[in-house]
Amino acid sequence: MHKHQILPQEWEKEVEHWLDWLKAAGCSDATLTTRYYKISYLARLLHCGPMEVTGQALVHVCATQPWKRETLKGYTNTIRSFYRYLIECDDDDIDVDPTRALPRVRKQRSIPHPCPDSLVHQALDKATIPETVMIKLASECGLRRSEIAQVSSHDVITINKHYYLLVHGKGAKERTVPVSAPLAHMVENAHGYVFPGRFHGHVESSYISKHVSRLLGHGYSTHSLRHRYATTLYAYTHDILLVSKLLGHESIDTTQTYLALTITNPTELITAVTL
Fold it and tell me: What are residue 17's phi and psi, to 5 degrees?
């Protein structure tokens, strides 16, 4: 599970107990793997045991890594969670929480980047059947790459002659999204995981993103297809609550960053707001 990351020995006991704590809180295996990866990387950079870490050392490590803002946020959230566990639950006394020295990472306002339908059609023309399912699950159902990797034939649901897909989202949260009959049948024909792993289970999310990005080109990705889904859906429904629910967002603020909206009639807009 964690063969690519070596955790320093002096961190092993506390990290093992912390992961149990996270699992007891309902965190998914994917979340646990991500947290382990990040804590292992930070531990190797800090060059000391968890009880010897200082706030200054944490600030220095975070300040000297070439991380983008979202990556930095992921690492700081991980180390904060770890020390929260140590303070609240661990038997070893820790006098000062070193993560208090870390500044809050300001959320970056992302620009919507929906993939044009023309490129989606070009990609579908070149795609294999499995790749076609990948593209359609992202562009027609709004699934994240990690969610696409987990799709199984057992996730197709029929309600009142309409097809829905049970999506296994972030944080072990599930949602259902409408799916077309042709796509539902493609998923059902898999008789298990649509994208099975080489030995067991399903493929990793990186496998999905590699295939989709190669087919789309021009810097577009599975996330761009998700933006396409959100923008198209909102243009049709004008219901941001519905779009947010189908995307699996906890906040409408997040959904708004996915919408690439254009002013189709600026004259009417100016007339409407002019006093």
Answer: -70, -35
**Whole-angstrom distance, CA of residue 191 vs CA of residue 152:** 8
Question: How many Cα atoms are found within 13 Å in the side-chain-facing hemisphere of 161?
Answer: 0
Determine the Cα–Cα distance for residues 106 and 87; give it in Å rounded to an integer.
Answer: 25
Bridge partners (DSSP) of residue 177 are 165
For residue 270, the Cα-to-chain-centroid distance in whole angstroms is 38
- List of residues 6+ apart from 37 with CB closer than 8 A: 2, 4, 5
For residues 161 and 238, the answer to whether their CB atoms sit within 8 Å is no
List the chain pLDDT tens, one digit each, 275 residues: 444 468 999 999 999 999 999 999 988 887 898 899 999 999 999 999 999 999 999 999 999 999 988 899 999 999 999 999 999 886 666 778 999 999 998 876 667 789 999 999 999 999 999 999 999 999 999 999 999 999 999 999 998 889 999 999 987 789 999 999 999 999 999 999 999 998 889 999 999 999 999 999 999 999 999 999 999 999 888 899 999 999 998 888 888 877 775 545 545 544 544 43
**Whole-prediction pTM:** 0.68
Pull the structure tokens for residue 165: 């897909």
Place domain 117-256 in its CATH homologous superfamily: Intergrase catalytic core (1.10.443.10)
In SS3 terms, 215-228 reads as HHCCCCCHHHHHHH
The structural domains of the chain, with segments of one domain joined by +, span 9-101, 117-256
- How many Å apart are CA 24 and CA 31, to the nearest integer? 13
> What are the structure tokens assigned to 227, written together?
């933006």
CATH topology of domain 9-101: DNA polymerase; domain 1 (1.10.150)
Contact by Cβ (8 Å): 231, 220: no
